[in-house]
Write a structure and sequence with these properties.
With 520 residues, this protein is of the alpha/beta class. It folds into two domains: 229 residues, P-loop containing nucleotide triphosphate hydrolases (Rossmann fold, 3-Layer(aba) Sandwich); 184 residues, P-loop containing nucleotide triphosphate hydrolases (Rossmann fold), CATH 3.40.50. 36% of the residues lie in helices and 16% in strands. β12, α17 and β13 form a beta-alpha-beta unit. The longest helix has 15 residues. The radius of gyration is 23 Å and the shape is globular. The chain binds adenosine-5'-triphosphate. Adenosine-5'-triphosphate binds next to α8. The site of adenosine-5'-triphosphate (ATP) has 22 residues, from α8.
Amino acid sequence: MSVPTSGGGSLADRISKPDTLNAQAETFEPKSGTSWADEVASPSTEKQSALVNTEEKKPEASEPVPQVDGATAPFGGSDLQEPEFDVEVKLADMQADPNNPLYSAASFEQLGLHDNILKGVMAMNFRKPSKVQEKTLPLLLMDPPHNLIGQSQSGTGKTAAFVLNILHRIDLSTEQMQKTPQALVLAPSRELARQIVGVVKVMGTYMPGLITEAAVPQDAAARGRKIEASVVVGTPGTVMDMIRKRSMDVRALKVLVLDEADNMLDQQGLGDQCIRVKAMLPKNIQIVLFSATFPDNVVKYAQNFAPGANQMTLQHKDLTVEGIKQIYLDCANDQAKYDVLVKFYGLMTIGSSIIFVKTRETATAIEQRMTAEGHKVVSLTGGYEGAQRDVIIDSFRMGHAKVLITTNVLARGIDVQSVSMVVNYDVPDKFVGGGRFVADPQTYLHRIGRTGRFGRVGVAVTFVSNRGDWEKLMEIQRYFGTEMTKVATDDWDELEETVSKIIKSSRAGANFKDGATMQM
Ligand SMILES: Nc1ncnc2c1ncn2[C@@H]1O[C@H](COP(=O)(O)OP(=O)(O)OP(=O)(O)O)[C@@H](O)[C@H]1O
């Protein structure tokens, strides 16, 4: 099959010819659009603060076995050990390789956790800690408590590290204590907050009296209800409102966690809210910051926010996840991108995938066009109301929709193990003033990290259709010292062959429709 794309020759060709390149440079202006800060829990959406008791969100018995919203597959853990996964390297091998981020020399039993907590860990089928869990848990569990800044690659189990510390520290001995907030986790999106609630609940299954609640923007009906939970996970604006309105009592809080901490401290608005929340908490609270990325400009903030913290950090070059194969599709021009997207989806059978775009408008446009082509897609952006967002993400987690189109609002933290491909329809960039956008390596890393979770394999495909995109992508490549393979889109036979080879070499899980060899 050979499906040529419309005119113009490949981008790389144009780039190697300076004349053409200059001509192109004038044509391609940075797109304006919705910003990251606009998409995340913004002050306006946060006004509708209320509590979400995720107890009500249990799936119907007849539905496919879901990931509990947001917990990982309940009691399935990282099921890479199971033979159904046609991978050459088993999780056990990875966890025995000292150079792998999933490696550990210790067992969960050696970490000094209470038996009821260990039972939860074992029921999740976590057989051994990952490196970040093994290294940070002894530091987190120390008495007196110490602050911690922890960094490790996406999908390597940071959530369990901070959740285990929380479960270890809370006191559930009386009904009064069970209903009193003792640990607070802040996350940048409602979806991530709800996911973390799911993890706390699943891990704490064997802890009698554990009550966990999400504090995220919600419908007006629940507004004003007092939090009666030992563990609270929320977005910063909502939590700030609740503390101010005294619907959350913070006097007994012992632990504050910022997940995606660099993002939380760096973003205008979010950063202020986190600082205000912290100022209202007891002074001797343990502060724990986790992320896969801590860019240089945020490190100082982080150290001020968590004074005297123990630190586990990584070099840029060690941040990429080995199992994620990175390619870019060289599209003739901006208009050709959509055709390439549809042809690409026509060619491959992909488990679940996420398409990242820059603006809400692009998300809606692609959703409509792909739906018309018969694909089961949903889109989720900051433009939707909270309750709608819950329905959308749940339908993706359950596998009812196979393709999720979203903006940076879901770039971080979301853990859906079946995601075998991430598409960057727009190269991630950030506004730096003066009408300029520059490459955003951190967002790139977080986006592609939605696949390849805990030793799984996946493919990250970035669309490049102009010189500006290409330069930004090369900047990202340099930043991480990684290799991204260029794939032309003017010869689909060749594209099929190239992508097939790449997928095989990475053990990644996508099938070509007419000759499946790989399985995920
Ligand atoms: N010790 C373990 N053994 C097996 N599976 C694990 C273990 N720890 C975590 N996992 C699983 O690994 C997956 C990724 O974990 P998690 O979401 O905590 O990653 P993360 O490091 O927070 O990633 P991100 O940077 O993207 O937020 C989850 O599905 C989780 O259940």
